[in-house]
Automatic annotation (TrEMBL):
It comes from Citrullus colocynthis (colocynth). The chain crosses the membrane at residues 381-399. SUPFAM superfamilies: (Trans)glycosidases (SSF51445). Belongs to the glycosyl hydrolase 17 family. This is glucan endo-1,3-beta-D-glucosidase.
């Protein structure tokens, strides 16, 4: 009966991402060396990632993802918001950019702009809610409003205060537009999307912000003095700060989702903490939390949906070095660092293989040699050991009770 045990291991671990139903990933495309969308789909399928966000409505991506299990959030670029305030223009946009691809392509969300509230452009902010209303009206006219939710990702800079979480409140200069936006989310039962990066808090003040706290490593954490809730990581604290901010404006029932979070594996000399070790720890620990479908201390029974940033390093992104180094993978399909996954070129008679071979569905699997956090490794090892001893005993009992035949 022992040959059954490796099979159980294989079934349990073949899809490291598969157990995390609340996990998605951002698929940026600002690069001149990225794989084609069909190869990206092969990769996502191998990783069992079923939630993706893109930053446009790229027809090649939407066509390639047809008839797959991947749910996709598309984006309206900021410069289009003024145009889409017009209901007729919004209807034309939905008719040409969205309708031709559904239901074959599972478009589940439209991000109207990105970080509009922190763009310092009041004219742009004033276009946000009218554009969202026009797009929603167009979706309703086409019978798509029940399956496609509309929101906009905001940076954490929308908050005037975020620490402790119970002190969370929005900046006073945006409360008027924010109130309209929250009313739209409440009416349409859409989530509040937040781009939350503990990395930035650590980079800006590494002497005051504990590294273990932002990396999800074991640490004493902090207790909110008003709610007495305990936080052992900054990301959950940031999410709850947004919940408190919305509640203070009378919108306590809206769900918060993390539309972006990640950690750069490389940075400029002044970008403290941007290195491979921290990036691997952050994303590996976050994935473990996602495997458990955790909620935040304020909403422990509602799993926190999170989209990692990002799938690939993007070589044409402007800005500091870190901006081009958030990817879990290099464009050729090799890992930027190991979060518990291995990529293989696959069997080939040739000593050199093309980059496309990296993306075959069978080429990516969990690596048993992935580095782990030593502080948490021992406990995880014994928990795993106990679990598999239980599986072994249960399997043994089943086989022992089966009738024997000659």
């Amino acid at each position: 009966m022992f040959f059954h045990i490796p099979l159980l291991f294989l079934l349990s671990f073949s899809g490291f991402f598969g157990g995390a139903t609340s996990l998605g990933i951002n698929y940026g495309q600002i690069g001149n060396n990225l794989p084609s969308p069909d190869k990206v789909l092969d990769m996502l399928t191998a990783l069992r990632i079923t939630k993706v966000r893109i930053y446009d409505t790229n027809p090649q991506v939407l066509s390639a993802f047809a008839n797959s299990k991947v749910e996709i959030i598309v984006t309206v670029e900021n410069e289009m918001l003024a145009q889409l305030m017009d209901p007729q223009q919004a209807l034309r946009w939905v008719t040409t950019r969205i309708k031709p691809y559904v239901p074959a392509t599972r478009i589940t969300g439209i991000a109207v702009g990105n970080e509009v509230f922190t763009d310092d452009d009041m004219t742009l902010m004033e276009t946000l809610v009218p554009a969202m209303l026009s797009i929603h009206t167009a979706l309703t006219q086409l019978g798509l409003d029940s399956s496609i939710k509309i929101s906009t990702p905001s940076s954490l800079a929308v908050l005037q205060e975020s620490y402790p979480p119970s002190a969370g409140c929005f900046k006073p200069e945006i409360t008027g537009i924010m109130s309209q936006f929250l009313q739209f989310l409440s009416t349409t039962k859409s989530p509040f999307w937040i781009n939350a990066y503990p990395y930035f808090a650590y980079k800006d003040d590494p002497n005051s912000v504990p590294l273990e706290y932002v990396l999800f490593n074991p640490n004493p954490g902090m207790i909110d003095p008003f709610t007495r809730l305990h936080y052992d990581n900054m990301l959950y604290a940031q999410a709850d700060a947004v919940l408190f901010a919305m509640a203070k404006m009378g919108f306590g029932g809206i769900e918060v989702r993390i539309s972006e979070t990640g950690w750069p594996s490389k940075g400029d000399p002044n970008e403290t903490g941007a290195n491979v070790e921290n990036a691997a720890n952050y994303n590996r620990n976050l994935l473990r939390r996602q495997m458990a479908n955790e909620g935040t201390p304020l909403r422990p029974n509602l799993r926190l949906e999170i989209y990692l940033f990002a799938l690939f390093n993007e070589n044409l992104k402007p800005g500091p070095t870190s901006e081009r180094n958030y990817g879990l993978y290099q464009p050729d399909g090799t890992m930027a660092y190991n979060v518990g996954l291995s990529s293989f070129k696959g069997t080939s008679s040739s000593s050199s293989s093309s980059s496309s071979s990296s993306f075959s569905p069978s080429s990516i699997s969990l690596s048993s040699s992935a580095p782990t956090n030593p502080k948490g490794a021992t406990m995880g090892y014994y928990q795993s050991l106990v679990y598999w001893m239980f599986v072994y005993l249960l399997t043994y009992q089943v086989f022992m009770r089966r009738p024997m035949y000659n």
